[in-house]
Design a protein that fits this description.
52% helix; D-Maltodextrin-Binding Protein, domain 2; single chain; 306 residues; 14 strands; 2 domains; six-stranded mixed β-sheet
Length: 306
């Protein structure tokens, strides 16, 4: 009886231990599951944090990019204008033998281009200085930093566009044929076999050289000299830009005339050294306003010979 009771007690203990083991396993499994779940949650959170960090990093990168752009903009800024302001003057390069756009009056250079350049200087807040030189030296002088802009009745051409940056055009013009009053020359076809005067390195020179089968091309430093060559009989005709040609004829109305048929159409613009967008923007603003208000034509009339 006691043996059976002992066996029963042992059996009960075994069952209890088994149950406890089961409970322990269940608890461990539950704990593991919970741990696993917490780990997954933590991992997910970490992943999420990582994503947020990546997003923040991307944002930081974006901010850095913007910062770089801003820095670049600051570096680029307005270096040309800053240099001009620091010097206290805007230097205009010109050839003062091209009335009504630039000409010498006493001891100063005056004309349409001078007044327009003065407006650019006023806009920047500096004085204007005019440097007079041969026309064929203008672009090289600009490239060498001897001036800030060219304002010289300069026509836009593909060749010049390779050397300088042009402003928006402010004058439309043509090439004219200037002849003695009693000449039989009526147009371009009559220039063949003739001696023709031009201002050297100008579009007049280029046109005659490329398009006219002339006897000889006489090249002068100024349009006025080219016109005088016709008056003195050294040349049969002169090819000159429209308004300057008209100015020459007006000043010598008893001796010169203009053929009815004109030559190529052209546009005048100011020029700056390559890459000086800040200065070019100010020039374009001034010229746009002058054209809109018809000030350019008013200035042409002001300086045109009667």
């Amino acid at each position: 009886m006691k043996k059976k009771t002992l066996l029963a007690g042992l059996t009960a203990v075994a069952m209890t231990l088994s149950l406890l083991a089961g409970c322990s396993s269940t608890t461990a499994a539950t704990t593991a599951a919970a741990t696993s779940k917490d780990s997954s949650t933590t991992a997910a959170a970490a992943t999420s944090a990582g994503t947020d960090s990546s997003t923040m990093a991307a944002a930081a990168t974006s901010e850095g990019t913007d910062g770089s752009t801003t820095a670049a903009a600051t570096v680029e800024g307005t270096p040309t204008l800053d240099a001009i302001k620091a010097s206290g003057k805007l230097v205009m390069l010109t050839n003062a033998t091209f009335p009504p756009f630039e000409m010498v009056d006493g001891d100063e250079v005056v004309g349409v281009d001078v007044e327009l350049a003065q407006r650019v200087a006023d806009k920047i807040g500096v004085e204007l200085e005019v440097q007079d030189m041969n026309f064929d030296l203008l672009t090289s002088a600009l490239a060498a930093g001897k001036g800030d802009l060219i304002a010289a009745g300069m026509s836009i051409t593909p060749e010049r566009q390779e050397e300088v940056d042009f402003s928006t055009p402010y004058v439309d013009t043509n090439l004219l044929i200037i002849i003695p009053k009693d000449s039989a020359i009526a147009g371009p076809d009559d220039l063949a076999g003739k001696t023709i005067a031009v201002q050297e390195t100008t579009t007049s020179d280029l046109y005659v050289t490329d398009n006219v089968d002339s006897k000889e091309v006489l090249r002068f430093k100024s349009a006025v000299e080219a016109g005088n060559a016709v008056i003195t009989g050294k040349a049969d005709a002169a090819v000159i830009d429209e308004m300057t040609g008209q100015n020459v004829v007006n000043a010598n109305a008893d001796e010169l005339a203009i053929t009815e048929e004109s030559l190529s159409h052209e546009q005048y613009a100011m020029a700056v050294a390559k890459g000086q967008e800040d200065l070019l923007a100010v020039i374009n603003e001034v010229l746009a306003e002058a054209v809109e208000k018809d000030d350019v034509n008013t200035l042409i009339s002001k300086y045109m010979a009667e």
